[in-house]
Amino acid sequence: MTTAVEDATTGDGGGHPAMAARAESVAKAYGAGETRVVALDGVSVDIERGVFTAIMGPSGSGKSTLMHCLAGLDTVTAGRVWIGDTEITGMKDKKLTRLRRDSVGFVFQAFNLLPTLDAIENITLPMDIAGREPDPDWLRRVVETVGLADRLKHRPNQLSGGQQQRVAVARALAARPAIIFADEPTGNLDSRAGAEVLGFLRRSVDDLGQTIVMVTHDPVAAAHADRIVFLADGHVVDEMREPTADRVLDRMRRFDTRGRTS
Fold first, then answer.
1. Is the predicted pLDDT of residue 13 greater than 50, yes or no?
2. Tell me, what CATH number does 124's domain have?
3. pTM for the full model?
4. Structural domain of residue 179, as residue ranges?
5. What is the 3-state secondary structure (H, E, C) of the chain?
6. What is the pLDDT of residues 23-67, one digit of tens each?
7. Is residue 32 situated within a structural domain?
8. Count of structural domains, the chain
């Protein structure tokens, strides 16, 4: 039986290589007339399978909007978006919800754990709702990867902030989605707990073959990624491979007050 990760994205039939997600000439605007705000303006980006990609940029650059559009959490004003080889542009809500449930995982700044459930119940909750049995071998690997084996029967109020976010990461991984989107996943954590969570995300790519897209403003967090896509003023303005915190910080400093490179 194939999983969402193993079921390779085989391209869209138009000669494009296999990608976990893809945006083509995407625009997103809010409001109309004098109040119209353009958050994304013709953005094209490929998200490679098995790669940890970070999205960075100044406040208001469009990075969270891009993630929401790639994940099917928001619609686009123009352009096209794919998750795997499935185009989601204009997809009906019911079908899109099913695709997100089966192929996409989410980790947000807020842990979003149910306080009445213990850790393992929170981890398997999405699959329980979908009526799917977790793969016991995969679930064990996930739990071991995030270091929660001795905390599975603890409820959220019995866990530290870092442990709660690890539960959230395990929940995203447990259904073995094709891609995980993480929006400022260390934003509510201290530096030590944040480093732990980033280490688990990194290991999920290296050891479990996961694909991760993370929005962050933190150069240290971004340095855990394989690749960084930089946005400014709703445009992709740069890309960096094999980043280090110093290189990322230097690149961010070169944004002028308009967000463009100086």
1. no
2. 3.40.50.300
3. 0.85
4. 50-67+94-253
5. CCCCCCCCCCCCCCCCCCCCEEEEEEEEEECCHHHCEEEEEEEEEEECCCCEEEEECCCCCCHHHHHHHHCCCCCCCEEEEEECCEECCCCCHHHHHHHHHHHEEEEECCCCCCCCCCHHHHHHHHHHHHCCCCCHHHHHHHHHHHCCCCCCCCCHHHCCHHHHHHHHHHHHHHCCCCEEEEECCCCCCCHHHHHHHHHHHHHHHHHHCCCEEEECCCHHHHCCCCEEEEEECCEEEEEEECCCHHHHHHHHHCECCCCCEC
6. 999 999 998 888 999 999 999 999 999 999 999 998 889 999 999
7. no
8. 1
